[in-house]
Amino acid sequence: MLVVEHLTVQLAGHRVLTDVSLSVQKGKMVGVLGQNGSGKTTLLRAIAGDYKVSSGSILIEGQASQMLSPKNRARKLAVCMQNHHVPLHVTVQEAVKLGRYPYDHGWFSRRSKRDDDIVERVMRDTDTIELANRLIGQLSGGEQKRVWLAQSLAQEPSLLLLDEPTNHLDIAQQVAFMNHLHKLQQERELTVVIVLHDVNMMSLYCDEWVLLKQGQVLGTGAVTNLTESLLHEAYGVRFTESLVPPLGKKQFTICP
Ligand SMILES: Nc1ncnc2c1ncn2[C@@H]1O[C@H](COP(=O)(O)OP(=O)(O)OP(=O)(O)O)[C@@H](O)[C@H]1O
Questions:
Q1: Could you give the count of Cα atoms lying within 13 Å of 72 in the half-sphere of its Cβ?
Q2: Phi, psi of 167 (to 5 degrees)
Q3: 41 C-alpha to center of ligand 1: Å?
Q4: β-sheet bridge partners, residue 195
Q5: 6 lies in a domain?
Q6: pLDDT digits 0-9 by tens, 159-197
Q7: Fewest CB atoms within 10 Å of the CB: 144, 197, 214, 255?
Q8: What CA–CA distance (Å, rounded) separates 227 from 250?
Q9: Residue 240 belongs to what H/E stretch?
Q10: How many domains does one find in the chain?
């Protein structure tokens, strides 16, 4: 579904990503990990077509990302970055409707019944329907994040790129957000690439991981293959790993 091969990206004359390769199958959720400045956001932005690629290739459903028109790209992939633009004065419903822009035709295009149905459906799926008439500026951080997820889903993407979507959320809100995302991923066979700082959250919800260090891939694989020694190599911090029996998932404890 997504294939990145030997990707190198330079920004302001500095090489930020070097020879990055990864491939993500349809319907899988991949967690991108790594220290601050290791290149996680740059990788997402390069996949989203925001950055020029110095060398290598990015294929989305077999098509070169760079060759897609902005509207075509927006029908295939939706992006929710850390610094998501927040129009505080619009209602939740208006904000979600903006997600239908890839399907507009011309300047004065009218929204169809299908557009309205999709907006309603994604608002139900993300538990934002009750907030429909509230102003964005009056929502909590967690509620706002669910609205951005709804807006992204309104694009009907097959690929969703999320940059630290649970940042600044309390534990309950983090779990609620990840549960929503996981359910949607399963139900719609959504492919998700998600940047997370929380290794344990990644292990609980993702199918695979990619670990970056100084713009290069230190390792990648199924969640069960992530090890304390790789994490130590990436972060310089010691971890001990344990298996949570009912879930069959690894969790990592920091050893200061
Ligand atoms: N537009 C830019 N121009 C020049 N350098 C940039 C630009 N954006 C990022 N960088 C540099 O590229 C490197 C990787 O940045 P990036 O934001 O991708 O890291 P990150 O892993 O997402 O970090 P964080 O966890 O702090 O969000 C950093 O050294 C950063 O300073």
A1: 9
A2: -55, 135
A3: 7
A4: 32, 163
A5: no
A6: 999 999 988 788 888 898 899 899 989 988 999 999 999
A7: 255
A8: 9
A9: strand 238-244
A10: 1
Q: 14 CB under 6 A from ligand 1?
A: yes
For ligand 1, atom 7: residue with the closest CA? 11
Tell whether ligand 1 has an atom less than 6 A from the beta carbon of residue 16: yes
pTM above 0.90, yes or no: yes
Residue 92: domain span: 84-156
> Locate tokens 């957000």: which residue?
177
Is the ipTM reported for this complex over the cut 0.90?
Answer: yes
- 232: in domain: no
User: Is the CB of 12 inside a 6 Å radius of any atom of ligand 1?
Assistant: yes
Closest to 17 measured CA to CA, from 48, 47, 44, 43: 43
| Residue carrying the six token digits 């990503």 | 17
CB atoms within 10 A of CB 15: 15
- Whether 107 shows a pLDDT value over 60: the answer reads no
Among candidate residues 240, 81, 248, the one with its CA nearest the CA of residue 151: 81
Ligand 1 centroid to Cα of residue 37, in Å, is: 5
Residue 107: other Cβ atoms inside 10 A? 5
Residue 17 included in any domain: no
